[in-house]
Amino acid sequence: MADSRPNFMKNWLPAILWAVAILVISTIRTPEIETPELFIGWDKLAHFFLYACFTFLVIRPLRYGPHPMPLVPVVFLSFVGASGYGIIIEVYQTLVEREMEVADALANAVGSAVVASVYLVVSLNRNRVRRKAREQRECQRED
Question: Is the pTM of this model over 0.85?
């Protein structure tokens, strides 16, 4: 029986390391720094970015790993998993003397949803284009 550890590590290691990085960053107490506010704060943009990247890193092994899953369940599980992890981290922050913010959890979920949605749309479009090209090649062979 082949050893599946190298595939597991190759596929999941980036997502695991990113999750650990999020945990470490979320544990560190940061001083309050006055920053210019945009429409939303820099903090929320950081949450959006961290969980957008995390969602993409979770999509890859689910979609292309040793046991690939269909597109829609992959996108759904990636969104739910990344958003759920964001909620768990927000609750965890109350244990390390940081504040839990619903707005942070929302920014996490929005970042995850955006990447999941874009991935779904791009993949569906790519599949449609490939299917159309395959149909055209088949029609040309018949002629």
Answer: no
